[in-house]
Write a structure and sequence with these properties.
single chain; alpha/beta; Ribosomal Protein L25, Chain P; 3 domains; 7-stranded mixed beta sheet; binds adenosine-5'-triphosphate; binds magnesium ion
Amino acid sequence: MTTERPTDGHPGNFVADLVRQELAEGKLTRPLCTRFPPEPNGYLHIGHAKSIVLNFGLARLAPDGRCNLRFDDTNPETESTEYVESIQRDVSWLGYRWHGEPRFASDYFEQLYEWAERLIHKGLAYVDTRSEEEIRATRGDFHTPGAPSADRDRSAEENLELFRKMRDGEFEEGQAVLRAKIDLQSKDLKLRDPVMYRVRKVPHHRTGDRWCIYPMYDWAHGQSDAIEGVTHSVCTLEFINHHALYDWFLAALEIPDPPRQIEFGRLNLTYTVLSKRKLQKLVGEGHVEGWDDPRMPTLAGMRRRGYPPEAIVAFCERIGVSKHDGVVDVGLLEHELREYLNRTAPRVMGVLRPLKLVLTNWPADEVETFALANLPGDDSAGSRPVPFGRELWVDRDDFMEDPPKKWWRLAPGREVRLRGAALVTVDEVVKEGGEVVELRCHWDPGSRGGTAPDGRKVRGTIHWVSAGHALDAEVRLYDRLFSVENPNAGESSFLDHLNPGSLEVLHGCKIEPSMVGAAPGTRVQLERTGYFVVDPDSSPAGLVLNRTIGLKDSWAKIAKKASGR
Ligand code: ATP
Ligand code: MG
């Protein structure tokens, strides 16, 4: 990682440094071109965001730089247009524009096929008609060299004829593959005559029934890069052992000035799983409500949770790019999130666990409207009118009948400030069946707006909502989906570590009337409570808010310390 901030205003990382140097030395013979190559077999997650931010960021290093979006759609069994569409939506949402139209590896099937024939002509590829198990068994391992198939020495003409039969559907699945003819002795197992094509009699979401042979990842990827004029093919570290093969195919095809593969460490996060297979399982088995469940680390889930794309991009830039895999503390992501929301999310008052507070010396039908700052400390954000009256809602958690020292909130006989409105004192606690149902209070008529007339100090300030004006809301309190730092570790299934308290739904919450008609996606800070976003499930009949993340709560910290936890 570089320590100095580069002068071009783009993030510094080892890949960017390398590209900068090549640009400075005039080494590129065509426009700088990167690509983001998802397989459309799931939704994008925060790990993909790291790759997106890196690839699209690199393209900005040159005025004519570009980044393609290419779907690596070579496995028809697992891919679908739902995923193709969600991926485009999510990349756009992060704020990136790919160069031209989205591209698809499947658009190159014809070219890849022709190139495969070219390798056969050159004696560099052959059809192996043994079973896949047999092929695997004779490939050897690190200690044992591979053993050749009798098919390896067939003539180019014979191979061509067999390969065309493969394409024409004359072989069933598992009866024949096309393999590159490289080196069965190689220490690099990937170079031991890797498979280039398999027979798969499965329709493809874009090419339909046109093909019954499909290229393997290694054969498709570098060649697709070459077709698009990609200069830097940036991928995660697990592809480092594909690197020699990537280069071999391009050399065998005599591609001039071939693209170059560069590996970086993938993102792992504490308390999170990022493997697509595991995310599939969470969705498929109903542990969450879908790919866009606000607890999912998918971009669709994070959007619904209330993450602003800017916070995700800022996080990806902040963690940098390394040549090693590492695990990032999810707290860092949450820090970027709070940081951004603190600056941008308008303040609103909302009471999640309502308790009635009655001001006995306030006339029953008198309503006063106070102007409260949308972003305290930032006058440019303006203010909003908030109605106030005799009957108010306050949060149950802000009252204690028999409080300890250092409790500055509501308690019998203590004076507290209702934010921006009035100073009030609890005179009487009304109970029903042992439960507190109402606080009867008086206010100091000299404290209109919340300031003491004699300058006396009132430490506690709490939020409130006028009972006559409150909007009813359903509030979904989300927490981390997993309760352990590394849900992937150990013998047990990651599913054993699901946090049973990852969702708590509250009904009958009371929100100040300025949120009437707020559109889904609207982000606010409920003062003293946390950051929330309006869920698409909201309707004129009822507001639904998702908790994006809580504020750092100082009382919770004191209580935690006191209880020795
Ligand atoms: P998974 O391994 O979870 O199934 P994937 O790598 O197969 O994910 P792709 O659709 O192939 O998913 O990924 C598209 C691009 O995103 C690839 O270049 C891949 O290297 C990159 N990518 C995927 N996961 C991460 C991650 N956790 N961190 C950084 N980049 C990632
Ligand atoms: Mg992959």
